[in-house]
Amino acid sequence: MTAQLDPTRRSLLKFLSGAPLLPLAGGSATAALLSACGGGDTAAPAAQLMSVSFSGMAAPSLANAPQMATTSVASTMQALYSDGKTVPYNLAYQTFFVTGAQVSNGNGGTILAGGYYDINNKPIVDKTDANARQFFSDCPDGTSLLKLAAPTVAGVKGNTVFAVVQFEYTTRNVKGDSMYGMLPSPIAVLTLDQDKATGALSLVKYHNVDTSPANGLWITCGASRSPWNTHLSSEEYEPDATVIDKNTQFANFSTNLYGDATKANPYHYGHLPEITVNPDGTGSVKKHYCLGRISHELIQVMPDQRTALMGDDATNGGLFMFVADKEQDLSSGTLYVAKWTQKTADNGGSATLTWIKLGSATSAEIKALADKLKAADIVDAKTADPSDASYTKIPFSGKTNWVKFQPGMEKAAAFLETHRYAAFKGGSLGFTKMEGTTVNAKDKIAYTAMSYIQAAMTNGSGGIAIKGPNAGIVYALNLKGGQTDTSGGAINSEWVPVDMAAVPALVGEDLATPDALGNLANPDKIANPDNIKFSEKLRTLFIGEDSGLHVNNFLWAYNVDTKTLSRVLSTPSGAESTGLHAVDDINGFAYIMSNFQHPGDWEAALHGKVQATLDPLIRANYRDRYGAAVGYITGFPALSF
User: pTM of whole model > 0.90?
Assistant: First the structure.
């Protein structure tokens, strides 16, 4: 793929590895690059950077089993200059830590990377372990990289840079029992030392954010950096408040958080937490209750700093949009859900989008309702047909509900029972695992990852009846202003999605029979896209997989101009690609943040041909499969205009 750059605004490349990344070919461009990186002593006129392209790597094979058992990057980047020279550079992967490591807390002591804490910030201990060790996550996820104007962290020799990393869950306890959703998700602020000459990042301080002001956090998944330099987190798979007394997962969560199986309130979870980083490398959290209680994942705030498009990683999920009342402030605004009017069905289909207003609110007023209301105060939901016309039939979480909302509770319904209320109001609640969202601001196109095309998208739920692969699709959504909602009210945004269609090159391909390695989807195409981030300066959409169809999950790069797809990175077998964050410029350097989670999470149908070979290698690399890596890809260019 080739990223075309504005010829009137050129700059040199700087690179990110632990030492200056030396080119594989010489010439005048090489001398200029080395000079810019501090790696050469020859003053030479700078050739203009014309374009950047990537050569993808092959999918790893059992012929090189160690490559399948770790994060591998065998891709390259080519820089084309105005003097005709093309300079290739190797990409690489650098970790900050593998979870479970003891890392510096910045005060002369250490702290457990990915460790879990209760509401009193006391370590949560795995009681099935004879040594009573603290739980730590094998599932690092959403990551943001940012800088502040006046940092005060001691011990930094170069530039001070911060990363916020959240941990979605831990797969199991020492005994082997599932721990999914049973522990309050931790979030950490990393203070990083950025080498001024090379851009290399090294960990100086790890700070665990106190999440008790937000009642702890529930299953934090994808994330993004806001335009105002905060970390926008997520809480997915909101617990169903109508059957909470039967939810043993939530009871265990409450026990681990509060020491009491009944104390946690389900209406406190399924919202949008925001993390603010402080100059001393600490962080604080506030939870926004007015963006809908849905399966939040990877929110994207548009360039107006008010309009937010939200992933909804659910079965019978919806496309939700929030328009804030003020710039850089998500504490009040209006919530909408999309209605899909289908145009075509094949290859993921296409549709026009209209918007249904669900309500306007402040976070404070919805929090007050969440504190005092029970599900029965808002909605009567039945799972069998009551044969009563006062109930409305809706799709909900892969099943059917019949609902009747209590009089006068519309606002509570819109913001606390959002999935049910949005379906009741006519929204298209038929998407299956709508994951990441991102925006191409120049072209006013949003992208959203649909991880699986399954029953809810093919059976007519919410008017959606398409044909597409189980391997999933990335959709493009054109954004426009001057739109009205379905009641005729003006939508106060210039960034409203008006249509939706699959990107042809980003449609997965199911295999009728497994290939020789065991892949259930074509390994040379995307499968089950999850994290997605767009680089404005590289004109590139980066796509991370959460696939049960690829033996190894991949990170891809798709150039939106040349329509070229390149495989950039391969995660350990059985792991998911997470924590994706494309950063065009931090002090003159570019970064692609990339984590993975649950290495060696074997599925018999998929990994049967590789498990015996790879399992001991992955256990040796990642703390007997209890650990996972947080890190970044080195070698990407800075495009500082």
Answer: yes
